[in-house]
Design goal:
It is built from six helices and 26 strands. By secondary structure, the protein is an alpha+beta fold. The chain has a single domain, classed as Jelly Rolls, CATH 2.60.120.
Length: 398
């Protein structure tokens, strides 16, 4: 997309609504249950939040239902987990739930995975494998973060399994996953992966792919320090004169903002953009409204340029900002597929059943077995694809 310009404005953005989404116990579930009990008994959710930040054990899915004020974002999930070698319940839990997300399909949108601690191993139905994440000693700073920006486009299947290391290792995991809608004109673009950070153990089995899947490694997450006590990591878009190299199909900004205690900062928001802010740690006043830890604020849209203001509380604040130009298009979601109409969803399901997204596979397969399954699938599907593409295209008649 073309670059956007925004000038300084005296108009201050206002918060329209504040929501605290449920936090679900998982990885390890029993830790998460303890935090819920502590929150209920003490009436002080900041205590459970601090324990979660140290030990992990919960996930917070935030589904965005108000399309006008949250478009083009579909959801944001905050994961905070740990996998401990000495956890006696871990191995029982693994029998019920794999440590990650086995192969599943996507079409019509993009997944943005912003890793603050730990990491993931990606394998997909086009033969691409990438390991990405933060260093082993990462504490959640954006300086150590990694990003996988995956454009599903016309369709693929992929798995993302937690990078837990050897059986005797213990690891911390923390990340956001954000779903970004694609404009109608871009729903069927080829799949693409853009990476920020330092991918590890990368492998691109290009000889297995039925079509080119672009993979870009773009360096570290850009960092801005617009004022003393203010750090901003620019996942996409621009802030304080620093731009992300991530290419997007519509204008947007995803920023990780960290403020020291009592420090204030404002981000100039382009005219008409949606905007949401999530408080990961600490407390902040955003747009004049007090936001406690783990709350999500939707900022009222404005017909003119304005400023989203942040003031950190006594313990500082760590926030995620999602803002973008609304697409203002119909949204039809069918599980992991996001299109514009029920008919397009039906076509996607047909293509999935017909193997157009590629194969599915068990997450327990080793790399050689996975590669062989991908290779066999495309060897079988390619002739049918070529035959279909060779058929004459019918011209609609009145």
């Amino acid at each position: 997309m073309g670059s956007y310009q925004v000038g300084r404005s005296a108009l201050k953005a206002e918060v329209e609504s504040v929501v605290k989404h449920p936090r679900l116990p998982v990885w390890p579930a029993w830790f998460g249950l303890v935090y819920i009990l502590i929150d209920l008994v003490t009436g002080n959710p900041s205590l459970g939040a601090k324990l979660e930040n140290v030990f992990g054990g919960r996930v917070c899915p935030m589904f965005f239902r108000n399309k006008a004020d949250q478009d083009p974002f579909l959801l944001c999930v905050h994961h905070r987990h740990s996998f401990a070698f000495l956890d006696p319940f871990r191995y029982i839990f693994r029998l019920l739930l794999p440590e990650g997300f086995p192969a599943h399909p996507h079409r019509g949108f993009e997944t943005v995975t912003y890793v603050l601690r730990g990491g993931l191993v990606h394998r997909d139905s086009f033969g691409v494998k990438k390991s990405y994440g933060a260093p082993p000693d990462a504490t959640g700073s954006g300086d150590q973060a990694a990003v996988q920006w995956m454009t599903a486009g016309r369709g693929l299947q992929h798995e993302e399994m937690w990078r837990t290391g050897e059986a005797t290792e213990s690891t911390d995991q923390e990340l956001y996953q954000i779903w970004v809608n694609l404009p109608a004109r871009s729903k069927m673009v080829p799949p693409r992966m853009q990476l920020l950070g330092t991918p590890e153990g990368s492998e691109d089995a290009s000889s297995l792919r039925s079509s080119n899947v672009e993979v870009r490694e773009l360096g570290p997450v850009p960092h801005a320090q617009p004022a003393a006590g203010v750090s901003v990591w620019v996942v996409s878009g621009e802030a304080a004169g620093v731009s992300s190299p991530i290419e997007t199909y519509s204008d947007m900004a995803i920023l990780h903002i960290k403020l020291e205690a009592g420090v204030s900062w404002s981000w100039p928001r382009p005219c008409g953009w949606s905007c949401m802010t999530y408080v990961r740690q600490g407390e902040a006043i955003v747009g004049g409204t007090q936001l406690p830890v783990h709350s999500t604020a939707t900022i009222r849209q404005s017909p003119v340029e304005d400023e989203v203001s942040f003031v950190a509380g006594e313990e500082g604040a760590d926030l995620l900002l999602l803002s973008g130009a609304p697409l203002r298009e119909p949204v039809e979601m069918g599980g992991n597929i996001v299109m514009n109409s029920p008919m397009q969803l039906a076509i996607a399901e047909r293509d999935l059943a017909g193997g157009i997204f590629g194969p599915s596979w068990r997450h327990t397969l080793d790399d050689d077995e996975w590669k062989e399954q991908v290779k066999e699938h495309w060897a079988m599907v390619r002739p049918f694809q070529a035959a279909a593409e060779a058929l004459p295209k019918r011209t609609p008649t009145n």
